[in-house]
Amino acid sequence: MSFSAGVITAGKVSDSVHAGVNEDKSGPLIQDILRTRGFERVVSAVASDDEESIRASLKQILSLKAISPLLERQAPGLVHLLLSSSLKHTPLAALSRPLAGTIGKTLVVTLPGSTKAVRENLDALLSNGVLDHALDLIKGGSGKDRSTTCGHHHRPGCVAPKPRTALSHDPSVPASGRLRVSPYPMINLKDALDIIMTEIQPLEVVTLPVTAGLAGHVLAEDVHAPQDIPSSKTTNVDGYAVRSSDTPGVYNVLTSRTHKLSEELPEGFIFRINTGGPLPAGSDSVIMVEDTELESTLKDADGEDTEEEQVKTLAQVSPGENVREPGSDVRKGDLVMQMGEVITSAGGEVGTLAFVGRKEVKVIRKPVVALLSTGNELLDLQSPKPMPGDGWGGIWDTNRPSLQAALEGMRYKVIDLGIVADDVDAHVRAVSKGLETADILLTTGGTSMGASDLLKPVIERRFNGTIHFGRVAIKPGKPTTFASIPTKAAPHGRKYLFALPGNPAAAIVTFHIFVVPALRKLGAWLPNKCQLPRVQVQLENAMPLDPRVELHRVIVRPTPEGLLATTTGGQRSSRVTSLCGANGLVQLPPLAVGGPSKLEAGEFAQAIMIGEIQI
Ligand code: AMP
Ligand code: MG
Question: What is the mean pLDDT of residues 530-537?
Fold first, then answer.
């Protein structure tokens, strides 16, 4: 059975939302949670803080003609559940007055105003199948079927996580009490990327000096040339400025030391000039030094040659020959670069800004990234602790060095928060530090279903964060988690966090697939440029298919026939050597029922380029 939900924001806040002075935070949060927990249609309304308006919103949502008593049947058990769950968090909950009951075949529940309390109340309602059961009973069911079928519309008929909760597991319960199925729906790659693009809003505009440090920024203004370049007639070659009417013959030589540019070039004289230099008044073309001969020289007191005196011109030049006209490179007022363009490290854009004399320019600030690894088993390469006493060797922290290399290669500033132990307080301290110092946090490990996997609960329960997705149907990278955490200091009131899988190959792959687009969106790259480029490649080897979309690590090389992709061998998510030398990820389709079990050598597929094409 599928259910829809209606969310009404009412109370004092709704009036200020109506007046446009306040933002409704809890309404969208409730919708978000219900959507990700499988409600097929979630509609919403903001009512004014009076009974009539609330009734009108209810009517609108329920499509009812008349509602006499707000609730036809009370549900005191649900009220009790909401109160008792809120009281666990604050004694002040004793002062709240939740309502629950039915109108027709619709369950109506009032939730508190704050986002924190909304999460706690929804958690109580959704866990142990209470809400499912109640809805099933109202619709006339036995209350049994829903708890065993999938609640989300992506995979009808599949087995649902049971019990469902609004939040990830509570780390204070013992390991025996942990959830055994992830409460996060498995979403597909495209939906995950869409969520990132929708959730992330670019950082603010800053003015920076035009230096090499601009590389990687997006321009936040149009740049026009303030003057013609060149600003006057200049020469393309080394030689002599002449009148094109002068015939070949012997001429006296003038230089910038003996003649002012503004003065007319006298008859019988030519003016020595170097590439890029300006022509003197009266001249209109330039003869190349190769088309001249030295005739005579000036000598000093010792009889040594010091300077050209006379030169013979050997050719007749035409008007304008070897001359760059004013404004012929860039004309005053020309749009030389456009808002939204990326300043690359290839040099062309920084060069253009410098060429037109821009000393500083408006760009979007680039995100600062805080990086940490989680895991009691991890050893820092540079300052290893003694190995654990139980004889097990521990694991070198691979992800911080690898991700730092990738980030700094893309010119992002990295704050290294080190290795964080698998305990809640250490996580809270590290995440707090990350929120203070960076715009986005990258963590690895601690995203699986282990009792010591703390990131999701810490984000939700300690930072009041929202997990936008917690599982993606790709291999490697299933537990990739994307969240935002409310932070007053941040430009849009929140900062972002990616909890990437701990396995080192999965961490790098998911970095390129999810984090790079997120960093680019923060830096205001145009939406169609945020993802890494995809190219068509021919497979050199057969590649087996998995039920999930697989990102197979390859080396992409150009050949006369096109781009060829060669596998890097074993693709286990821990085998980071499969990324050694890899510059692409072939996106393999999921295994289809009755379809082929692999792509054959010679077949074509798409590869996501994570590095330069290799030769
Ligand atoms: P977890 O999600 O924390 O259970 O991690 C999954 C696997 O990745 C475990 O085998 C971890 O030991 C391993 N792992 C986690 N973090 C790292 C890291 N920074 N470097 C290398 N391996 C790691
Ligand atoms: Mg771990």
Answer: 98
